Amino acid sequence: MNAIIRNLLAGIGGVVVGSIVNMALVNVGPSVVPLPEGASVSSMEGLRESMSLFTTANFIFPFLGHALGTLVGAFAAVKLAASDHMKVALGVGVFFLIGGAMMVKMIGGPMWYNMVDLLLAYIPMGFLSGALARRKAS
Questions:
Q1: pTM for this predicted structure
Q2: How far apart are alpha carbons 138 and 133 in whole angstroms?
Q3: Per residue in 88-108, pLDDT tens?
């Protein structure tokens, strides 16, 4: 198989794997850290309106979902890629960063969380997974 096609398919596979990890953590979060009284997360509008009720603890699992989803997805992509491993890993990170930025625009949230999430959960995790996968291959 052509290396470019294999790398593209690896990136898509990494996004799928990372999305599954992300959603699993985001969905399990309220079971571990209960939502505040009156918070509704069943719709985008309800989530947007509930943001002001959230405590710092309520942001732990969304951040973990974003960071670990990116880390695992980028690692999987690197393992599947034929070449340009760091580019593939960072490509997955950029994909999730764009998604994170879109969510910030749609939902909002506290500025501190948006900054931590956008600056630490995506590109650094993509880079870390690229470095870890490369190191493990050596």
A1: 0.93
A2: 9
A3: 999 999 999 999 999 999 999
